[in-house]
Write a structure and sequence with these properties.
The complex is a heterodimer of chains A (290) and B (202).
Chain A (H helix, E strand, L loop, with lengths): L6 H11 L5 H13 L1 H18 L14 H4 L6 H4 L2 H46 L18 H9 L7 E4 L12 E4 L17 H21 L25 H42 L1
Chain B lengths: L2 H9 L3 H23 L2 H17 L9 H22 L28 H20 L2 H12 L4 H8 L3 H18 L9 H4 L7
Classes of the chains: A mainly alpha (290), B mainly alpha (202).
Chain lengths: 290, 202
């Protein structure tokens, strides 16, 4: 019955079945179907055929087809970074342990050093108090001091800056100091002296020395180097300068300063390494898990 | 996560994202392969090969229907296999049961809720339809599977086969005509609701 249909008829019927005909073509085909039984029969056969196919058993995948990295030809992403995790963890642990050890050792060493230092302060105070009472400078040794008449003459001659280096102790001074002391006096501008050069009697010189001393005293006291004080002595050349003494505690502190710095830097370095490697290990561990 | 985000991640090489897409589309892709190949094992091979090929070439995906893009890959894989078989004809092996008897339909097609009689009729109808599909040329077969079994519209089917919509329309009508002729002898297997079709508008 449907053998008289052309391929175009079948195509139009198939498209009409799926609603894919243009409105004009659809109206034309519907008009033809109303007048032709073979078109209606062909349409019914196509409808049944499509219904059978659409009611066909649904096929489901028998298994999962997900890909492994090997199948996809990709490398696991986190492997190289995860491999560093044990090394970072070990580094962090060792750094932390070393940090604790260094900190403890510094506390112990610092405590031992602090005791002699604390004990040394009263000793130095007592020493500075006892210094004026003791005959620190022998009267006979006074001329041997750097501050002596010729120096005074230089002061008298030109108001030049006075920069003297006095090394103490010397056996002639009778000072018993453990370390050689370098005393640096400040540069002092002295006013021009009214008296004549090299002239004058002893009273004038004494007056001059007292004036010079009175001018230099504030300078000496301004320097915070406290320990040894040279007091004026009744001597033929009574020029006495109050000299700053050797800063023995400062030297001890400066001597310990490099050690303190090294320990501090070691502590800081260990802390940074320990924290950074620990944080990095945590981040890598979390990435590896995700 | 939506499909666009998964596709974007997969384009960056994220295999987990692509595997989630596989889980969403593996039934569709496998059904296409099975209807094209007619054998479960060959359909599995084609499906797996299609997904591997899709992952490796996902950078070439330029938008549009992702399922159409996937089905084009698996359809092409089936074409290749069918051409290869045409050059080297082989006898397909049916699945064997415990008594070394051939299994006409694999166990995963079984529906435990149906009676043995219904299951037999259904399997016979399924096999009849599959045989008729296999008698079609691959180009016709792919279109009728896409439209009448997978439910694609003409435009999406045209996207899968990379042909104009007119070609889809033409191939579909000719495929339906051939299937009608093939299924003439199997009408007694068709359920009654499909036989009692009223005439009229679609």
């Amino acid at each position: 019955m449907t053998t008289n249909l052309t391929p175009r008829d079948w195509e139009a019927l198939s498209a009409y079945l799926d609603g894919q005909l243009a409105p004009k073509e659809q109206q034309l085909l519907e008009a033809r179907m109303r007048s032709r039984a073979d078109l209606r029969a062909a349409m019914e056969e196509l409808r049944r055929t499509r219904a059978v196919l659409r009611a066909h058993l649904e096929v489901r995948a028998p298994r999962n087809f997900t890909l492994t990295p090997e199948m996809a030809g990709v490398r696991p992403r986190s492997r190289p970074t995860v491999a560093f995790f044990p090394a970072l963890r070990l580094t962090s642990a060792i750094s932390s342990l070393l940090f604790v050890l260094v900190a403890l050792s510094e506390l112990l060493i610092g405590g031992r050093l602090a005791l002699p230092m604390a004990a040394g302060e009263p000793q130095r105070e007592a020493m500075s108090e006892a210094a004026p009472q003791e005959p620190v400078l022998e009267p006979s040794a006074a001329p041997a001091m750097a501050v002596e008449a010729p120096a005074a003459e230089e002061v008298e001659a030109t108001p030049q800056p006075v920069a003297k280096a006095v090394e103490a102790p010397t056996p002639s001074l009778g000072l018993e100091l453990a370390q050689p002391i370098v005393i640096e006096t400040e540069t002092v501008e002295l006013p021009p002296f009214a008296g004549g050069m090299g002239g004058g009697d002893g009273a004038d010189e004494t007056q001059l020395d007292e004036e010079a001393l009175s001018q230099m005293a504030p300078i000496a006291t301004a320097t915070p180097l406290p320990t040894l004080t040279f007091t004026p002595q009744p001597s033929p050349s009574p020029t006495v300068m109050e000299q700053p003494t050797a800063p023995a505690p400062d030297r001890a502190r400066f001597a310990r300063f490099p050690e303190w710095t090294v320990l501090r830097w070691v502590e800081i370095t260990l802390a940074i390494v320990g924290l950074s490697t620990g944080l990095l290990a945590i981040i890598l561990h979390r990435r590896g898990r995700s | 996560m939506d499909e666009a985000a998964l596709i974007s991640d997969a384009r960056q090489g994220d295999l987990n994202a692509f595997n989630r897409l596989i889980l969403a589309y593996q039934d569709l892709v496998y059904a296409q392969a099975y209807r094209m190949m007619g054998e479960p094992e060959a359909a599995e091979d084609a499906t797996q090969e299609a997904f591997i090929s899709a992952f490796r070439s996902i950078r070439s995906y330029r938008g549009g229907s992702f399922r159409a893009w996937l089905l084009r890959i698996v359809t092409n894989a089936c074409y290749d296999e069918l051409r290869r078989r045409k050059r080297r004809p082989t006898t397909p092996l049916e699945p064997m049961d415990a008594e070394d008897e051939e299994i006409e339909s694999p166990h995963w097609l079984a529906d435990p809720s149906e009676s043995p009689e219904d299951r037999t009729e259904r399997l016979e109808l399924d096999q009849a339809i599959q045989n008729c599909l296999e008698d079609l040329p691959p180009d016709f077969r792919s279109v009728v599977v896409l439209v009448d079994i997978q439910g694609f519209d003409y435009i999406e089917a045209a996207e899968v086969i990379k042909k104009p919509v007119g070609t889809v329309k033409s191939r579909l009508s000719r495929a339906r005509l051939r299937l009608r002729d093939c299924l003439q002898g199997w009408w007694e297997l068709i359920p009654a609701q499909f036989r009692l079709v009223n005439e009229g508008k679609p």
